[in-house]
Amino acid sequence: MIEEPVIEHLSMEDLDFWAGEEKTGVILHSVENDHNLGAIARAAAFFDVSFIVLNEMETEVRLTTSAYRVAEGAMEHLTFRKIKNTAFFLKDAAERLVTIGTDTRARQRIEDLESIVKNAKSRSSYRQGVALVLGNEETGLPQNVKEQCSCLLRIPGTGNIDSLNVSQAASLFLHAIFNL
Questions:
Q1: What share of the chain is helix, strand, coil (3-state, %, to 5)?
Q2: What is the pLDDT of residues 5-21, one digit of tens each?
Q3: CATH ID of 12-178, from 3.40.225.10, 3.40.1280.10, 2.30.30.240, 3.30.420.10
């Protein structure tokens, strides 16, 4: 059993560094399952993601033994930071990161990702990183978080079920971002 590590609060220096180096990251909001965190971390490390930002609300996922076990060594390749309020953070990050919110009802699709990111980066004088914003599997991202994202994208499917598991969706999105 590991002791849960102390995660530092995200600083503006962290954000400026990630943006300046055009790093990719993941922001989790209301993700509550430690196994999902481990699976997301594994996909993140595989697709060269640099950081994962966790919300510090009580119900949020934590870096537990279970998360480490599922990640199978991926945690050591990632920087973890925490924030108090996702919507507020995204508002601050808007000039530095292209923030891609996931939403099963979004008009735009994962296939639109390349043109969206290129367009967002061309409109900014600041070098930008990319952050994937993932929400709770049952409820998704709340409206105040969606409103702060650069764009909302969905993964089209057959409609037989509403959505993928959050870690599966993360893998597909991170693969698409990696291939930009």
A1: 40, 20, 40
A2: 899 999 999 999 999 99
A3: 3.40.1280.10
